[in-house]
Write a structure and sequence with these properties.
Elements lengths: L1 H16 L15 H22 L3 H37 L5 H29 L5 H35 L16
Amino acid sequence: MRRLAWMLLLVLTPALVGQEPGDSGQGPPANGPEAQQIRRQIRQRWNEHIRSTLGLSDDQAKKLQETEERFEGQRQPIRTRQREINQQLNAELASGTPNQDRVKQLINERQDNQLKLQQFNRDEAREMQGYLTPVQHARYQEERRRFQERVAQVLRQRREERREMQRTGPRPRNPAGPHKRPRP
């Protein structure tokens, strides 16, 4: 039960912290000091989880953390650009008469960004293979895949909730807090 609660916290927090400004219209800016502090806490919990799950030595844990941070720093601007491209593409497609050349340009740029992200992932995996055992590396990739699936699921759920809220209006706030359910 404790592991499930930890995993839910691990999964929900980055989805909320990583939201773009204007996603919900509430809360601190996505890059404000509070969001940065939460991101640090999430990274620390992730590192502790991976270290214990994979049985990493101090040296392995340090190298893994450095690798993750370096490659994430390289991926982040590409992801940001990917979101911008998707927004521009959606706007172009929603217009009455989409510009064929602009759509083609955006699709090509999106595909180029996807290739860059895939290359970063391959480079990161290759580097990790230098200090993780094959079993540790496979378990790491599985934990990361699960984490990404859960984040994607939470984001899909949040988008659906926003759409529903736009159709029906905001729900009354729970006086017990945003994440607590009233007791029967």
